[in-house]
Specification:
The complex is a heterodimer of chains A (694) and B (231).
Chain A (H helix, E strand, L loop, with lengths): L7 E8 L5 H11 L23 H6 L6 E7 L2 E7 L7 H10 L2 E7 L6 H12 L4 E6 L8 H12 L3 E3 L1 E4 L7 E4 L4 E6 L5 E5 L6 H16 L3 H8 L6 H13 L4 E5 L8 H11 L9 E4 L5 E4 L9 E10 L2 E10 L2 E2 L3 E4 L5 E3 L3 E5 L2 E4 L2 E2 L4 E5 L8 E3 L5 E3 L9 E7 L2 H17 L4 E5 L4 E6 L2 H15 L3 E3 L3 E2 L2 E4 L3 E9 L6 E11 L5 E5 L11 H13 L11 E9 L7 H18 L2 E15 L3 H10 L3 E8 L2 E9 L6 H8 L5 E11 L2 H16 L2
Parallel strand pairs in A: 1-3, 1-4, 4-5, 5-11, 6-11, 33-34
Antiparallel strand pairs in A: 2-3, 7-8, 8-9, 9-10, 12-13, 12-24, 14-15, 14-23, 15-22, 16-21, 17-18, 17-23, 19-20, 19-22, 25-27, 25-28, 25-29, 26-27, 30-35, 31-32, 32-34, 35-37, 35-38, 36-37
Helix pairs in contact in A: 10-11, 12-13
Chain B lengths: L3 H5 L15 E7 L5 H14 L4 E6 L3 H18 L5 H10 L1 E6 L6 H13 L7 E5 L8 H13 L3 E7 L25 E8 L2 E8 L11 E3 L6 E3 L1
Parallel strand pairs in B: 1-5, 1-6, 2-3, 2-4, 4-5
Antiparallel strand pairs in B: 6-7, 7-8, 8-9
Helix pairs in contact in B: 2-3
The chains are: A alpha+beta (694), B alpha/beta (231).
């Protein structure tokens, strides 16, 4: 089976919450005849959308895990990754973007460019993903595609130009004018499956001509041929215009804007055409890998099936038959029965089964060529691992992984749950690098940490449903940190005489604040007052001290420790003696270095009708938030603020009741900042109490 | 606050703005692209360093872009002057500044007043100074400006506007203030005109606190750094 790479598209669909990503994907699958009935996200038939395969996703009506699917439209193979919209699941979005060649950015025709669209757009820019915009929900009251297009230009800085016009809006949405072919398109049949091309209605001709001019103007700079035709005042062919749009899109300098309503079955087929026409095939984009044999120098991957294999595992799923690994191949061919090497572990694995995924149904295949997205069975790996054959040793560049900001203590209800819980946690940790788990040795509690309340909630639900692990959940806890504010000296001797060999070590030096980075150890010992072999012991002792600060038991960051003095004993000094001396020295210095607590500050954006601006700002002010700015447009307003995460618990409920449910908010981690004195005192007191009660 | 020494190094200090708590109306005029926003941001930062709270109103701009102006200019100040705890200064500036951006069509005087009252009443942010960038003088009548002046007086606010003038438009007031502000020049206490002068941009102070400017006040805007310098 030889595949023509020109006819492969790996695309993603991503957008703000509730812009209708999943609904759109459902329509695409229907029109490409992958599924034979349309189920709505919150449909009455109780089936749920095909892509929302997790029970929990169907229940909440949101997509949590990105699902991969495959379809065929007009001879092109399209791999689609339906990505989640909630900011807590950003890592899923980022991962998906890494393996995509192009993307469809969905926007709501009423809400326009919302905060999540901005985040997603930034990620797409980071990974240089060409995109087309699709303004969905044009059937909704208040739909205004030109306004959304303007927002794409203003807020996202995209060179966005409409390539279509709606015929009627809101409930009168009848069809779409295609400005490339200058025809009106109507969608007939029960599910809009029959396309009818007609002349543009009389009353829209002038507008269509005008908008076509705008479009041609914008894209002519990408094609000399088109420019020439226009200068000669001839009418350019549709192919010529498409070619120009494609070039502009691929260079990331142009974003075609499509419109429609997935729910009302309008415009989806045209969007599929656009995916084929404007988005890149695997050979159009450059992907780089790091050569592990050659000091991690960057190297372009070739997309050539004849070259050695390079493939990236970007997603793991625990299915009924063991671990399912989603893989994107960048060059070479992956075949059933092949032995491939995981470059992270150096282990050789054999491919038992190779499948093409369609949400949770699958199709067995024999081999897959470069540029494809497929899934492997029974291959043990973590997500982000690269597979190669034995001739080369490449790793796809590492992915950007944010630090978790919130944690929860969980306790299994019984023994059986205990076993299942550890299985589940092990699995989740592999699936999602932003989900971390560890055991607090002092309290013997299991702590899970992640990117937000919902993020952790979902994992707890999954533990219950998929692993039958019932757990008791503690209150969410903010991941505080401690740091120091000034330089302080230390000079500490550790002595122990217990008969037999004793322990002795003395460590002197100072610690000071480190502006960037977490910890730095400087060895300024001269004259061997601490023997070489014990220097790493000191470092180890300091590192141990950093794990738990004395104020709230949080990790300490931003410290440089310099040792410049010390003494040893020929018999009594040992590794452990110097470790303990370093711990003691750190304690001594830390107390004098004016330690402070830092807390995660979130960048919060609240969007809603202008009439509630006062109430929204009030609610942020009450939460120790600093309002960065406000933006008003028409009757719609956005308040941007920086608010401590600790104050954001339960904010969604408060916001809902303040604004009659008309406002929504998103937040993402911004930075760590020192907590104010009053709060800091409370935190320290609470920690002391807690310690006493143990 | 402890930032007065830093504030005193600011060349703008010779204008003695932002010190008294009386209301005042200021105007920065220039042809497009000469650095009106840069000057306004430096006026705002000057006021913040003196311990005032500033609302920066940007009409037709985004929050991020406006914020970037402050970040850039603050970064430059931190590069030039040694500040013992730069993070504290950055934090302080953020707490004393608020950005309000409006789509051109969404900005009007009643709405502005409503927003300000909202914030003052709820004790969210009580400004001493208002900077309004991108105000459309072409299509504003005298009445609106008088109302803003009145509002500034009741709230004892310093208000600074920016206005764009054009080379082709030759209209000019008796004081030498060009269109579109030539008919409302009496409403402003201080008016600064930015004028290209060889490789520099000169601050032409037409009016200073209601009077003709004192002599010896000579300021430039460096076009590469966009910073105000003594001439």
């Amino acid at each position: 089976m030889k595949r023509d790479l020109d006819k492969v598209r790996n695309i993603g669909i991503s957008a703000h919450i509730d812009s209708g990503k999943t609904t759109l994907t459902e329509r695409i699958l229907f029109y490409t005849q992958r599924i034979h009935a349309i189920h709505e996200v919150r449909g009455k038939d109780g089936v749920g959308a095909t892509m929302d395969s997790m029970e929990l996703e169907r229940e909440r009506g949101i997509t949590i895990q990105s699902a991969a699917t495959y379809c065929n439209w007009k001879d092109h193979d399209i791999n689609i990754i339906d990505t989640p919209g909630h900011v807590d699941f950003t890592i899923e979005v980022e991962r998906a973007l890494r393996v995509l060649d192009g993307a469809v950015l969905i926007l709501c025709s009423v809400g326009g460019v919302q905060s999540q669209s901005i985040t997603v757009n930034r990620q797409m820019t980071r990974y240089k993903v060409p995109r087309i915009a699709f303004i969905n929900k044009c059937d909704r009251t208040g739909a205004n595609p030109p306004r959304v297009t303007q927002q794409l230009r203003d807020k996202l800085g995209l060179n966005a130009v409409m390539v279509q016009l709606p015929i009627g809006l809101e409930s009168d949405l009848e069809g779409i004018v295609d400005l490339v072919i200058m025809k009106a398109v109507y969608f007939d049949g029960d599910q809009g499956e029959k396309l009818r091309f007609e002349d543009i209605p009389e009353n829209m001709k002038a507008e269509a001509e005008e908008k076509r001019e705008v479009l041609l103007d914008a894209v002519s700079m990408f094609s000399d041929e088109l420019m020439e035709v226009m200068l000669e005042e001839k009418i350019p062919s549709a192919e010529m215009i498409r070619e120009a749009i494609r070039r502009g899109t691929l260079s990331l300098e142009f974003t075609p804007v499509m419109i429609g309503s997935a729910y009302k079955n309008k415009g989806v087929q045209l969007l599929l055409d656009a995916v084929n026409d404007y988005l890149p095939c695997p050979t159009d984009v450059e992907n780089t890998a790091l050569d592990l044999n050659n000091a991690e120098t960057e190297q372009l991957v070739t997309n050539n099936p004849a070259d050695p294999l390079v493939a990236l595992a970007f997603k793991l799923e625990d299915g009924r038959y063991g671990q399912l690994t989603y893989v994107r191949t960048y060059q070479g061919v992956i075949k059933k029965g092949d032995a491939i090497i995981n470059t992270r572990t150096g282990k050789k694995v054999k491919i038992g089964r190779l499948v093409r995924m369609h949400a949770d149904q699958m199709e067995e295949i024999e081999e897959a060529g470069a540029g494809d997205i497929i899934a492997l069975f029974g291959v043990d790996c973590a997500s982000g691992d690269t597979f190669c054959d034995d001739k080369i040793n490449l790793s796809m560049s590492s992915m950007h992984i944010p630090e978790p900001v919130i944690s929860l203590a969980i306790k299994p209800v019984d023994n059986k749950a205990q076993v299942n819980m550890s299985k589940a946690l092990n699995r989740f940790g592999k699936e999602d690098p932003t989900f971390k788990t560890f055991v607090d040795h002092e309290t013997n509690e299991t702590i899970i940490s992640g990117m937000g309340e919902l993020h952790l909630e979902v994992y707890i639900e999954r533990m219950k449903r998929e692993y039958k692990a019932e757990v008791e959940v503690g209150a969410p806890r903010v991941a505080y940190r401690e740091t120091i504010n000034q330089r302080a000296e230390f000079n500490y001797s550790h002595k122990k005489q217990t008969g037999g060999s004793g322990q002795f070590g003395r460590v002197g030096g100072y610690m000071e604040p480190l502006e960037e980075g977490e910890y730095e150890f400087v060895d300024a010992i001269v004259g061997g007052v601490i023997p070489r072999e014990y220097i790493p012991s000191c470092d180890k002792g300091f590192r141990k001290s950093l794990e738990k600060g004395t104020l709230t038991g949080s990790p300490i960051t931003g410290v440089r420790v310099v040792i410049n003095d010390g003494s040893y004993h020929a018999v009594d000094s040992s590794d452990i003696a110097f470790q303990l001396a370093a711990i003691g020295a750190f304690k001594e210095g830390y107390a004098k270095a004016s330690p402070v607590i830092k807390e995660p500050i979130m960048k919060v954006a609240v969007e809603g009708p202008s009439e509630f601006q006062g109430a929204i700002m009030g609610s942020i002010n009450q939460r120790r938030g600093v309002i960065v700015g406000t933006f008003e447009e028409g009757n719609y307003t956005v308040v941007e603020a920086e608010v401590p995460l600790a104050e954001m618990f339960g904010y969604s409920t408060v916001l809902r009741s303040l604004t009659q449910g008309k406002a929504e908010f998103t937040m993402e981690f911004s930075s760590y900042k020192q907590v104010p004195k009053s709060v800091s005192e409370e935190l320290i007191k609470a920690y002391q109490e807690e310690k006493k009660n143990k | 606050m402890g930032y007065e020494p830093l504030a005193n190094k600011n060349p703008l200090r010779v204008l003695k703005i932002g010190q008294e708590s009386t209301s005042e109306m200021g105007l920065v005029m220039a042809r497009p692209g000469l650095g009106k926003t840069a000057l306004l941001v430096q006026i705002a930062l000057d006021s913040i360093l003196l311990g005032n709270r500033v609302i920066h109103i940007s009409i037709g701009e985004t929050i991020d872009k406006t914020r970037a102006w402050y970040d850039d200019i603050l970064r430059y100040i931190l590069q030039e002057e040694s500040v013992s705890k730069p993070h504290e200064l950055i934090d302080m500036v953020q707490r004393h500044r608020m950005i309000m951006t409006f789509k051109e069509s969404a900005f009007n005087r009643p709405r502005l007043e409503e927003r300000l009252n909202d914030m003052i009443m709820q004790d969210i942010f009580k400004p001493n100074c208002l900077v309004i960038d991108g105000f459309d003088f072409e299509s504003t009548d005298r009445g609106t400006l008088e109302e803003i002046k009145e509002m500034a007086e009741t709230m004892s606010l310093q208000v600074w506007f920016s206005a764009v003038c054009h080379r082709e438009d030759k209209r000019v007031s008796s004081m030498g203030i060009p269109a579109p502000c030539h008919e409302v020049d009496d409403l402003f206490d201080t008016v600064i005109l930015l004028k290209p002068d060889g490789k520099k941009i000169r601050l032409d102070i037409i009016k200073h606190k209601g009077k003709a400017p004192e002599t010896g006040v000579d300021l430039d805007l460096d076009p590469t750094t966009m910073m105000i310098k003594k001439g």
